[in-house]
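Budget justification note: compute hours in this period were largely spent on complex prediction jobs such as the one shown. Inputs:
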Amino acid sequence: MRVLLLGMNHRTAPVELRERFAASDPAPLLAKLVESEEIEEAVLVSTCNRVEVIALTQRPEAARLRLRSFFRRELGGEAAAGEEGRRLDDALYELADANAMRHVLRVTSSIDSMVVGEPQILGQMKDAYRTAVDAGACGTILARLFQCAFATAKRVRRETRIAERPISVARVAVDLARQIFEDLSEKTALLIGAGEMIEIALEALREDGLSSIHVANRTRAHAAELAERFGATAHALDELPSLLLRADVVLSCIGGSSPLVTLAMVTTAIDSREGPLFIIDIGVPRNVDPSVNALDGVYLYDLDDLAEAAAANAEERRRETVRAEAIVLEEQQRFDGWLAALQAVPTIRDLRSRAESIRVAELERVLGRLGLDGAQREAVEALTRSIVNKLLHAPLSRLRSQSEHAGGFASLEAVRELFGLDSPRSGEGEEGGDADGDGSSREEP
Amino acid sequence: MIVAGLQIAAALYLVAGLAAWLGVLLRATRITRASVGLLVAAAAVHGFTFVGFHFESSPPPLTDLPAAVSLMSWIAALALLVFLRRARLTALIGLVAPAAFVGSFFAALRFPHSPTEPLVGTASSWPHLHVILASTGLALLGLACGAGFAFLAVDRALKRRRPVRSRWPSLEALDRVNRATLGLGFLLLSLGVVTGMLWVDSETGSVWTGTPHETWSALAWAVYAVLFAVRFGGRQRGRRAALAAVAGFVFLFFAVIGVGLLA
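Corresponding output:
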């Protein structure tokens, strides 16, 4: 059994190529993929940053070709040929076995994400897994791999700080606001400007539960348009002094050569309230008089301050990635052990079968000459069965336990080689099978 | 039995304080939660020592300084546990628990306490009421001081544009604790002063005998009266309110406890 992974991500393919091969409805595609003889199980991960197929196969070479054609035909719609085909080939990466499994664990743990530590990928991987299960494309082994990946992601989140601190300017501003205010949901925000930065900040504030939001802009129509989309109220800039009296969080990003929010305006605002005032000035040139930071209860941050905090947080995440990689490796080894134990089953079954066939053949050869009665014959049968079982007990037990650890594959290979399990049988009879009737299912780990 | 209880409580307070600091600095939620559990356990064991006092001699000998300090630290721990239910204030355990450790350890060291040597005259119903009210007031004002100290640390970091990377409470929560504990603490301290005067009156026939304890306590009350008026009448807040809470408690502690120790 081999695990193969073929895919493209934000590092290997530009967004237009990722868009071209993204799957909006993966279920039928997966169902068709596992109908192929080469593919036994498959999961398709399709997000804005990656398109990857993870497959289980007994025939890796054929499966590799099938997965490439899956990208060209099924995902690319009409066969991607010519220039696009070459771009696809350049963008695709292939991983096999341990590398493929580790990649799944890293992706799910958000180590491989564009924004390391982002939380969405875990949900996206869970969706991909559920879709594959519903489509009947995900069997025991990939199911176990994904369960292991989800557990790894939870461990990484719990045991490291990979996702603890925000790294976008907007999220850093919200994080700072939480150091000042206990509950943002009961606070009022004033956004000055209606550009893209304000919109991003507005989304971040909304996500954190801030409900009362005012947008003030030179062009009131632009403010109204933004306010309507986010359920805020629109104002003109001349309302700033009165809006400042009500605001707890002020976020400003608007053009202009001189500070729009003056020391006098902020002094009046802070004197008329009990709580603090948090001002984020991401305008260039700055929109807020820097001296307001000296006022008791006023906390002013500009773009450089936020960018510095974001960079420090990103550095912390990078450091935490090392710890996360160690967790991934540990979990991958655990999964390898399980997989190796699973792969030990055929070897154990073959060894039992080989021993049993020799026992039966030799017994038949001797019994004909001895002329024993029924009871004597049964006694000899029991004796030979007991000898075989006792001889095999220790090696089979060790094979089972060793196959769960690193190096287990080597033991399996050695047993197959020593007992000639992969060579044609000769001399000992061909009865084979599970002659002692104990059922091979007992070897399932 | 009581000494053992005080020692166990002191040990639990100490571990709770250390756990709270570790939780804050390492940003470890489990350790922070453990510090809350340890504080609950410490306060429970500490509470049983007062039950022990009660069974040993009723009413319990609280008028002795170590017992009063022990009571004060217990009430501070209980008050913090109440506030913990309303806001993210677990970091304050790092300040309150070590103080409670000192209070309970001091009480254990000085056991048995000396109820036969009250501050003034012989016992009546006023001494216990006075000690309970004044100790509760002091404990709450101590908590205001702790919240003020934490506020100053977070405020300084934010003003210097060095966001707090460890898990400190929000400025707003700290300011609310400061406000609530100052208001209630001053009220109880005032009642403590009144009952103290009634106690002295019942023993000497005069509400004022001019002992250092009375003089310093009256001065401390006056200081807090000013702080109370400024905070609730003059809209003082934030950094200034935090500074006032810290400075006020330092003076109060010296006036009530320090003078008692030096006497």
